[in-house]
Amino acid sequence: MSILVAGAGGFVGRRLVEKLHAEGRPVIAGVRKPRESFARLGIEQRIFDAEKPETLGTALRGVTHVVNCIMGSPAAMVASTRNLAEASVKAGVQRFAHFSSIAVFGNAEGEIGDDFPVGQNVDAYGQAKIDCEHLVRKAQQEGLRTVILRPALIYGPGSEQWTARIARLLRWSRLGDLGAAGDGICNLIHVDDVVAAAIAALDRPEAANRAFNLAMAEAPSWNRYLMDFGQALGFTPIFRVPGRNLRIETKLVAIPLKIAEIVTGKLGFGQQLVPDLISPSLGRLFNLDARYHSARADIVLGAPAVGYADGLRQSANWVSRQ
């Protein structure tokens, strides 16, 4: 077995490479530019850009298993997945694990299992993930054995979006007890559980050609998560955010912050100069009554091992060291 993790420079990809290496697996980090952290560990790196199919022949030489963790713009994700899946078919890859997302379910509410219909009022990111799944299934029809993983909100050490960003917003009392606006379900999954599921997807024959939701079984409400995480961070008392404040954040403040984020990014200053925005989509998520079930993954790939309290502790400890 020789495992190529494409998108190894990202949050999940990096964690997956490090875990496979720690287990003594023959892993290759697929990156756009060399990473010193991988070099220090003696991990082989292959440099390629999956948007450029001509770079993939050498990248896949001798590879038997591929994990696609590539992120980017919607167009970049679709192009990269198309090229990587097609190249994997040509290279005779034995197993192709692809990271999708619960975003494929859009704003659907209620109990959502692995076979729930996709595409209900999805955003551009969710549509791109749907398009990527179609491309993976097309490669499956051409003989590639595939696994589609749909993680929920990935939190824990290293998570910028659902740990670090949330911590900053709690620190400045821009999030807290949201009242009725925070009664939606916070469908979390710890990064270590996501990595464990990806490894099982490579190893277990019964996982082939199936799609799996990955989510915490007893997910808290957003209010519960925000208050529990705030307390773990020591940001007490937890601020009660009036509904008016949240509406101002999502409808008025988010627009100039998004513009500033784009401008500073293009100028090369980095996004750390711009305060975190609370987008309209995030505001809607706080009140979304959707619970994602991962019963199939629990049986085939193994149930999540990191409990909610332990995950909060790890997350708070990581934030405090930043």
Q: Which properties best describe this structure?
A:
alpha/beta, 46% helix, two-stranded parallel ribbon, seven-stranded parallel beta sheet, 2 domains, globular, 322 residues
How would you describe the overall organization of this protein?
The chain has 322 residues and is an alpha/beta fold. The chain folds into 2 domains: 3-151, NAD(P)-binding Rossmann-like Domain (Rossmann fold); 160-182 and 222-285, no CATH class. It is 46% helix and 14% strand. It contains 12 helices and 11 strands. It has helices at 11-22, 36-41, 56-59, 74-91, 124-141, 160-171, 191-203, 222-233, 243-267, 280-285, 295-302, 308-321, and strands at residues 3-6, 27-31, 44-47, 65-68, 95-99, 110-112, 146-151, 153-155, 188-190, 210-214, 290-292. Helix 1 links the parallel strand 1 (3-6) and strand 2. Helix 1 (11-22) crosses helix 7, helix 7 crosses helix 11 (295-302) and helix 8 crosses helix 12. The longest helix has 25 residues, at 243-267.
